[in-house]
Structure formats: structure tokens, C-alpha cells
Amino acid sequence: MGSIMSSFTSSMANLMCDGSPRKLIAGCWYAIMIASLILILLAFWMTSTRSLRESFLAAWAALLVTLLSIGGTMVMRKYHNSMAVGFFLGAIVAMAQLFFVLSFIYSGYASDRSMMDLPSAQEGFNALLCLIESILLGTFSAILVAHRSKILTSPADESVVSGDVDESYERI
């Protein structure tokens, strides 16, 4: 399964990003960030126009996606060790599952509101956006798992980046 995913994502990188898996990972992350921004803006609107339950759900999802965006950008830009990337992958998979469940919750809200003859377009749009976010996060995690060696730095690279000098070379 791993080699199939790796070959599939490599062909995606060849097709869309001139063969660079790092560009594919970055492009997918930017798509997630755009969808997250739309979700955050929609959450601000929902908190002012909907019930307490829907407002809390939207605000909580917005808070979590904001934290994921900040933490994910830090991992993608600065912290390239295996612990940070592994934690990031776990958070991405958890958020993908959360947004998948949220898409069903929002579609339930939309059907309830339509049965009560209330406008339900916002909940339907939010359900669709949560489903798209879930698919984007799941795809991103699969791509990151297949090409995590392109993100991770080796211990030798970490010592050069951090400025640590091996003491045995100072005597020469």
C-alpha cells in the first residue's frame, strides 16, 4: 500500500508541481489554509445568527482549525524532526475525522431547519465545506505520510541548522 501511495503521489507531483513532492505538500497545505479561512469567517457569522449549540460548534471548530493552521505552519516551516511531524500527522488525521463528523452534524441541522421552513442554506454550505476540509486533510495526511522523508531533516542537518559544533573538530 505504501509503494502504491508513494507512486501515486509522485505522479501527482510530476503532473502538478514539476516533480517536487515538497511543492505538492505545500500546495495542498495552502489549499487547507484557504478552506480553513473560509470556515473561520463562516463561524464568525454563525455565532451571531444561530442558536447557542450551533454557535459553540462553529466557534470550537474555528478555534481548532486556527490552532492546526498555526501549528502546522510552524512544523512545515521550522520544526522538521520526526516527533513534530508525527504529532502533526496525528493532529491532521484527528481533524479530518472531526470535520467528517461535522459535515453530518451540519447536514442534520440543515434538514431540521428546512423541515421547520427556516433558511438552511448556510448549514448546507457549512456541511459541504466541512466535507471538503475533511477530504483535503485526509489527502494531505496521505501525501505527507508518503513523502515524509522529504520533510524530515537528518540529525546531521539539525546540528548544522542549530549551530551546534562537534567538539572533536574544534581541536583540528
Radius of gyration using CA atoms only: 20 Å
Please give the domain count.
1
Contiguous uncertain segments of 5+ residues: none
Overall body shape: elongated
The main pleated sheet reads as: none
Number of helices: 8
Strand content: under 5%
Report the strand count: 0
Explain what the structure shows.
The chain crosses the membrane at residues 24-45, 57-76, 83-105, 125-146. Keywords: Membrane, Transmembrane, Transmembrane helix. With 172 residues, the protein is mostly helical. It has helices at 2-16, 21-49, 52-77, 82-115, 121-146, 148-151, 155-162, 167-170. Helices cover 85% and strands 0% of the residues. It is elongated and about 55 Å long. The model has no long low-confidence stretch (mean pLDDT 80). The longest helix is centred in the middle third of the chain and has 34 residues, at 82-115. The protein has one domain (2-153). The protein has eight helices and no strands.
